[in-house]
Amino acid sequence: MTAPYRAALTGLGAYLPEKVLTNFELEKMVETSDEWIRTRTGIRERHVAAPGQSSSDLALPAAREAIENAGLTVKDIDLIIVATISPDMLFPSTACYLQAKLGATCGAFDMAAACSGFPYAIAIAEGFVKSGLYKNVLVVGAEAITKFINWKDRSTCVLFGDGAGAAVVSRSRDDHGILASNLGADGRESEILQIPAGGSMNPPTEETVKSGLHYLRMAGPELFKIAVKTMEQAVRNVLKHGNLEVKDIACLIPHQANNRILQAVSERLEIDPARVFINVDRYGNMSSASTAVALYEAVKTGAIKRGDYVVLVAFGGGLTWAANLIKW
Length: 328
Ligand code: UT7
Known about the structure:
This protein is an alpha/beta fold. It has helices spanning 23-27, 34-41, 55-69, 94-102, 117-131, 154-157, 206-210, 220-241, 259-269, 280-283, 290-300; strands spanning 7-15, 19-22, 45-48, 79-83, 107-111, 136-143, 163-171, 177-185, 193-194, 217-218, 249-254, 309-316, 320-327.
């Protein structure tokens, strides 16, 4: 049975906090070097949220821009989904904070799929729009993830940055829009990337704080290998669902964790690197905001044009992975 409606991304927005932290500044904070960070990750600098600036604060300007670019007003938004793993609070949801800041009155909820958050949320919005339940869903990937980083741990603090990207997913009026999405997870590998304390498994105590269990932890080299294989497979799967091939992709928007991961994925897919959008050098890993901001910049800079086939693919803690195939 074909769905009554097709869903399309009709407006995009992005916001990066003002403060830029360079590798050279990090050299003064931990035992690292610009050379190590650049050669091992491709990152040169990242944006960092100000004290008191939360994920919903980053989400707000991105959301407003996306709504305006879609030619809509806040009143037209039927649902708000915020993908984040650095929420304003455990509850209420960041989406509720954003809803109030926008002056919206629709339903709002958060979803946590770590770095895969944005393509996961796009697939959920696609479902709501395709079913006919909602016409316009606002999807935001927003992270103030540096608030959960141990600035004394060089193995993680050089990698992450803050930011937000947003998209309005609306009923498509033609054959353009989301052609296929696929979502994946493997909860057995939850320890590879996590913030161990602060939830109901390890509630926050003096001891958890003293042991630094409220900070993000990552088994980088293990994750690297799984990330490469999984992102390649997620791209192949979503193309299969859309009856397309790698050669049909005009622009691949991968999660921006590490430039070496992106190179390895490109090689395995045998895709021309010029068709793989990369901005990790300027932002680092912004978790669920990464693909959202990369998509925004790819459209803005003309790397994506109307009629192009675009694939969003991400991988992250959970483990989770997700891909969307879009005819732009
Ligand atoms: O967003 C979700 C997905 N995230 C990912 O997929 C991240 C995947 N992993 C990675 O990107 C990489 O594994 C990292 C960038 C995290 C690490 O790169 P690596 O090439 O795997 O390095 P490593 O962890 O194996 O460390 C190599 C060396 C070690 O020193 P020894 O033991 O060889 O003496 C580390 O202690 O580099 C050292 N090192 C550093 N040196 C300078 C680790 N971090 C740093 C640092 N500066 N910041």
